[in-house]
Amino acid sequence: MIDETPVIAEGFDEPLQEGMIFALEPKKGIENIGMVGIENTFIVTAEGGECITGDNPGLIPVY
């Protein structure tokens, strides 16, 4: 499975609930090179989303 719940995209209506943890993983295909993407993980709190990835996720090349 490519996407796990909750899916945050048009056409999906599952509400986010306090205590849920989810990753935002935008991807982009680059012709003749492959895919590039980033990932940040969040926990849903009573005040909103809190990023738990860290303060400086940086970029990590994967070959």
From TrEMBL:
Protein name stated in the entry? Xaa-Pro aminopeptidase
Pfam family membership, one: Peptidase_M24
Q: Which PANTHER family match?
A: AMINOPEPTIDASE, XAA-PRO AMINOPEPTIDASE P-RELATED
Q: Does the keyword Amino-acid biosynthesis apply?
A: no
Return the EC number: 3.4.11.9
Domain Peptidase M24 spans what residues? Answer: 3-46
Q: Which organism is it from?
A: Methanosarcina mazei LYC
Is the keyword Protease assigned to this protein? yes
The molecular function terms of the Gene Ontology recorded here are: aminopeptidase activity
